[in-house]
TrEMBL record:
Protein name: Probable GTP-binding protein EngB
Family note: Belongs to the TRAFAC class TrmE-Era-EngA-EngB-Septin-like GTPase superfamily. EngB GTPase family.
Matches recorded under SUPFAM superfamilies: P-loop containing nucleoside triphosphate hydrolases
Coiled coil, from the record: none
InterPro entries: G_ENGB_dom (IPR030393), GTP-bd (IPR006073), GTP-bd_ribosome_bio_YsxC (IPR019987), P-loop_NTPase (IPR027417)
Pfam families: MMR_HSR1
Organism expressing this protein natively: Clostridium moutaii
HAMAP family: GTPase_EngB
Gene: yihA
Function description: Necessary for normal cell division and for the maintenance of normal septation.
Amino acid sequence: MEIKQSEFVISAVRSNQYPKDNREEIAFVGRSNVGKSSLINSLVNRKKLVKISSTPGKTRLINFFLINKGFYFVDLPGYGYAKVSKKEMESWGGVIEEYLHDRKQLKVIVLILDCRHKPTADDIIMYKWIKHYNYRTIIVTTKIDKVSKSKLYNNLKIIRDTLKLEEDDRILTFSSLNKQGKEEILDTLDSMVNFIPKG
Ligand SMILES: Nc1nc2c(ncn2[C@@H]2O[C@H](COP(=O)(O)OP(=O)(O)O)[C@@H](O)[C@H]2O)c(=O)[nH]1
Ligand SMILES: [Mg+2]
């Protein structure tokens, strides 16, 4: 897949604000600061389609980006930022669960993890939700420029074990510094859905 065109469409909190045109969706979710915005910007070849926020954990919005005028990338609010209150955490959960609940257009969820860290309790909950709602998923680990190959290999095994990944769940690796892994992520998404025009 090559992304030639991308545009911000809407920020939503409640489901009545989501786009109503029935185009299919690929959603991105992960801990705050994991590199989600950087990943999406790299995939769409734009420096600032998604803002790289200086105050992590502040966005509680679902952002919809129309890709190649055909389908959506959906940027879900990041979770697990240490400084948010319990109340904010609950509101985050509400926003995400409302989206995950019965979203027919949603075809794949990209769960983003930092390759250096063991998945947190929040990551595990997120993965369980994805499975509970029966969505297909790929796991993308970011910031691989920060670790050696052997460390990365070890960490991927820890991630697989901690999340208790199913055998056919794939872990891909990515660095937004040098874009390593980008083509494989796009190709994998392409192979999982049938709404991306070929060629
Ligand atoms: N070295 C390195 N830094 C990264 C990478 N991805 C993101 N970052 C940095 O991590 C911080 C958080 O990135 P951002 O994309 O805003 O994360 P988000 O909160 O998940 O959207 C920023 O300072 C990024 O420059 C990566 O692959 N490698
Ligand atoms: Mg972000």
